[in-house]
Amino acid sequence: MLSSFQIHLNRDEEIIFPPKRTGIMHDYSDRDELPETLITVYSLEEVLSEKLRAVLGQRRYAIARDIYDINFIVGRKVDIEKSINALPKKCEIKGIDIKTVQIENFTKRKKEYETNWDRNLKYLIPSSMMVDFENAWNSTVKILQESLK
Which of 55, 104, 113, 136 could form a disulfide with 62, with the two C-beta atoms 3.0–4.6 Å apart? Predict the structure, then answer.
């Protein structure tokens, strides 16, 4: 079985929060025998603000992974307020005027997101980590409402 990971390089993205150094986590049997390998990653606050921006208007297609990720990150130790405060800048970078963003433009796409969830996400996420679409959707709507106050 081959294992892989992806690296995304982007030159036009502005990083607002300091990157973090973290160890690579894996469940292989030789985990304790290998030296710890550290990599530089986006902070969870950065990822959350990116995901919020994506569902608020950056994406042309409904990508359920964004809903899953928002729900997953909100359940972690993350400063949600920091992510929300960074959202106007994140939107500005991509040419989105947050003052004109309406949550209804997101919520009316619920069926698209659910269809994408059923078609694609169930195959990407291990069953032990899968959550119910309705719960993830409601969690996302709640944080978007907070973001647009």
Answer: 113
